[in-house]
Every structure is written in C-alpha cells, then in structure tokens.
Known about the structure:
Blueprint: E1 36-38, E2 46-48, H1 74-146
Antiparallel strand pairs: 1-2
Amino acid sequence: DCPLDDGADEPHTSACSGAAVGGWAGVEGNSEAGPTFQCPQQKALVLPRSRINDGICDCCDGTDEQAGVCQDICDVVLAEERAIEAKKEQDFLIGSEKRLEELQAFRSLKEETVKDIEAVTLKFDNKNRELDDINRQIADKRLAYVD
C-alpha cells in the first residue's frame, strides 16, 4: 500500500511512483525533489519522477535506476545525438545559404521591376502630355472654326 509505506514492497516497479505520502520507491530525499528528473549527461532528457527506479534505463548513464542496473551507453547515445545535431546544423546552413541566394534573386528582380515600372510610367506621362497637346490643338481649331 503505497501511501502508507515507502514502496519497499513494490521493488523494481513503478507501482508506487508519485505516491503522495511516501514518495517514489527507492528515491532518497524525494520529498524535496521536483516532479521531474534531468539526466545529467542528456540535458534535453527530463523524466517524470515516476520513471525513476522503474527498471527501465532511460538515461544513457543509468542514473535514473539503482547503481549496477544499467550499462553506461552514453558514448554511443551521445555520439548519435551529436551526429543528429551536426546534420541539423548542416541542413540549417544549407537552408540559410539558399535563403540568402533567393533573397538576392528577389532583390535583383525587384530592382528590374521597379526600373520597368519607372520606364512605363515615364512613357505614360509622355503620352498624357501628347494627349493634352492634341486636346489643346483640337480646342484651338474649334475656336478658330467658330470665329
């Protein structure tokens, strides 16, 4: 009965994990401990206290279990994690480089487009001036004809 004892009658199980009274079986000083456990060698791996001393080696160095239960496989696990992180970093660098290339291509296209717009605007303004001149000539001819 977990609330009444320290979980000693449930060795190597998680049956008493997180018990309100008595705490977690086999975890000393857990009354002051937080609700999670961080594996010392794997900073990203944070376990709920219910996974401490449950017979499953979650941390690569086995610190989540009693001494001698787990093999220390951190060299292998961390090498894999480092390789994954290196791949992510390489992918990020490739993506960043591609983004910079695409930004430069966009800037060039924008610059060309702005120049084209300015040229068309200038032609449009010139045609409007020509149209205004023609309209003035028509108005002058009408006035001359009426007189």
